[in-house]
């Protein structure tokens, strides 16, 4: 069980969070868009830390689970905690895929595929624009002002 509060943001919190998004962030996070490959800010990030949801701040993936998939998007073989991401069947564009969304706010993150490396065999292929990054030892974001685990530091 996670120490983070997974209660969805209130309508007022969603309005405040949405107001701080760029057009591209809004298109990807809220309208299930995809950023162009090989252009995301986190594609080549090699720093130690935690990738969080750009919208609500929930920790999603650790840097030690990141790998170079060659696909043009940041890829991870396992989430920060299984409860922090959900999958939704995506049948858009004539394909059947598993969309990854933030378990707390429902924001679109990317897709998961069964062609990743050990130990999970999964490739969580994410949009950089859906993420924020906190370096190891720095305070995690807490845009919902929940305190508790949210006021901790990236491990």
Instruction: State the low-pLDDT regions, or none.
Output: none
Strands side by side in the biggest sheet: 3-4-8-7-6-5
Query: Can you tell me the number of structural domains?
Result: 1
The CATH superfamily name is Peptide methionine sulfoxide reductase
Helix content: 10-25%
Report mean pLDDT, rounded to a whole number.
Answer: 94
Q: How many helices does DSSP assign?
A: 2
SS class: alpha+beta
Q: Which keywords apply here?
A:
2 helices; alpha+beta; 3-stranded antiparallel β-sheet; Metal Binding Protein, Guanine Nucleotide Exchange Factor, Chain A; about 160 residues
Written overview of the protein:
A hairpin with a 5-residue loop joins strand 1 and strand 2 (59-62). The protein has helices at residues 11-19, 23-29, and strands spanning 49-53, 59-62, 66-67, 75-76, 85-90, 97-102, 108-113, 123-126, 131-135. Helix content is 10%, strand content 26%. A six-stranded antiparallel β-sheet has the order 3-4-8-7-6-5, with no helix packed on it. It has a three-stranded antiparallel β-sheet with strand order 2-1-9, with no helix packed on it. The chain has one domain (19-138): Metal Binding Protein, Guanine Nucleotide Exchange Factor, Chain A (Beta Complex). The protein starts with 10 loop residues before the first helix and ends in a 20-residue tail after the last strand. The longest helix has 9 residues, at 11-19. It has 155 residues and is α+β, with helices and mostly antiparallel strands. The radius of gyration is 15 Å and the shape is globular. The protein contains two helices and nine strands; from the N terminus they run H-H-E-E-E-E-E-E-E-E-E. It catalyses: L-methionyl-[protein] + [thioredoxin]-disulfide + H2O = L-methionyl-(R)-S-oxide-[protein] + [thioredoxin]-dithiol. It is an enzyme of class 1 (oxidoreductase). One of its GO terms (biological process) is response to oxidative stress. Residues 14-136 form the MsrB domain. Its EC number is 1.8.4.12.
């Amino acid at each position: 069980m996670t120490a983070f509060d997974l209660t969805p943001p209130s309508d007022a919190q969603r309005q405040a969070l949405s107001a701080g998004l760029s057009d591209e962030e809004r298109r990807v996070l809220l309208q299930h868009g995809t950023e162009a490959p090989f252009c995301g800010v986190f594609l080549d990030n090699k720093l130690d830390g935690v990738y969080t949801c750009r919208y609500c701040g929930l920790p999603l993936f650790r840097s030690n689970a990141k790998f170079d998939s060659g696909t043009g998007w940041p890829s991870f073989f396992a989430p920060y905690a299984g409860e922090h991401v959900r999958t939704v069947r995506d049948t858009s564009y004539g394909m059947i895929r598993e969309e990854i969304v933030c378990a707390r706010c429902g924001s679109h993150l990317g897709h998961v595929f069964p062609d990743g490396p050990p130990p999970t065999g999964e490739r969580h292929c994410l949009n950089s624009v859906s993420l924020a990054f906190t370096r190891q030892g720095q305070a995690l974001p807490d845009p919902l002002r929940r305190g508790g685990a949210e006021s901790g530091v990236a491990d």
